[in-house]
Design goal:
CATH superfamily of the largest domain: Periplasmic binding protein-like II
Shape: elongated
Structural class: alpha/beta
Number of domains: 3
CATH topology of the largest domain: D-Maltodextrin-Binding Protein, domain 2
Distance between the termini: 52 Å
Strand content: 25-35%
Number of helices: 11
Radius of gyration: 24 Å
Number of strands: 10
Order of helices and strands: HHHEEHEHEHEEHEHEHEHEH
């Protein structure tokens, strides 16, 4: 290295790498493209390394660029966390930014976050809902502190994120009182569900494959009247009596209170898992650690 690192130049490099190009980085920073380009050149001259190669219209990190990005991630993400921590110190609250998968039952999300409401120090929750892949990308970029979802991250994933199972629950079939009276839990269950109207998760949902297999095993051919990616929307239609639907057994009482849906029958062979996905942080988030610790102890607030 010929000179000490200019951290402003390094920061511009980091933003370019994260945004995927100089133009988008300039838009994010509110600077001219020429300014960003010249700062990158100065950084490369200072380090004696080329950070990017041009491939068509795209900038691709060199090996030196990948190494530099790994260190820049740690430097600037810690800097952002420092600023958040200082802001939290002034407000007296800990900020927890949570991504909630759109397929996750919202009652389950509440129970998974209940520990956060019981901390000695007050917590300010900031919750975002999106699809699983988008939330993982934001988590990897440290835009989120934790993701709550109904699936774990594949072992082959290149993202530096980690799955923690918080709890699992067998499922029950529920429906409005009118549907429950028609398809009540009797000796003929689940055969009596043949031809019954059902609201199911979309086929890309982690639970859907298990439900389809359960129907096949019990020779039940449901009348699928709706498929939903958003679990809250599915429950809303279920509340209106459009069809029967599935809910975690542990939340059956609350489902009845919130959606007016009563239990029709147990489905013990189908179990839904619920996960917290965390990222690789040098300084652990105290609320995330509390959620994971409560789940390991099997405390009610974690489930």
């Amino acid at each position: 290295m010929k000179n000490d690192i200019n951290y402003r130049h390094l920061y511009y490099f980091w933003v370019v790498a994260k945004e995927g190009g100089i133009t988008r980085a300039a838009e994010r920073l509110g600077l001219a493209v020429q300014t960003i380009s010249s700062q990158l050149t100065l950084l490369e001259q200072s380090l004696g390394k080329t950070m990017f190669n041009q491939q068509g219209r795209r900038l691709v990190l060199t090996e030196a660029g990948r190494v530099a990005l790994n260190y820049a991630d740690q430097i600037f993400l810690l800097g952002e966390q420092l600023q958040e921590a200082l802001n939290e110190a002034d407000s007296g609250r800990i900020r927890l930014t949570v991504g909630i998968s759109d397929s996750l039952p919202k009652l389950s999300a509440y129970h998974m976050l209940e520990v956060a409401t019981q901390m000695t120090r007050a917590v300010r929750l900031v919750c975002y809902e999106d699809n699983f892949e988008a939330l993982l990308a934001d988590l990897a970029l440290h835009k989120l502190d934790v993701v709550l979802t109904d699936r774990e991250v594949r072992a082959s994933s290149a993202l530096k994120v980690f799955s923690h199972q918080l709890f699992e629950s067998e499922m029950v079939v529920v429906g409005t009182p009118a549907l429950a009276e028609r398809y009540h839990d009797g000796d003929d269950f689940p055969a009596n569900l043949n031809g019954a109207p059902f609201l199911l998760p979309a086929r890309n949902n982690a639970l859907r494959g298990k439900l389809d297999e359960w129907f096949v095993q019990h020779h039940v051919r449901p009348d699928i009247v709706g498929e939903f990616e958003d679990n809250a929307l599915l429950n809303t239609f279920g509340r209106r009596g459009l069809g029967l639907f599935f809910a975690p057994a542990e939340l059956a009482t609350e489902v009845e209170e919130q959606f007016g849906a009563v239990r029709i029958g147990k489905v013990p062979s189908v179990r839904e898992q619920f996960y917290a996905i965390s990222n690789d942080r040098k300084i652990k988030h105290p609320v995330v650690e509390a959620i994971l610790a409560a789940a390991q102890k099997g405390e009610p607030g974690a489930a």
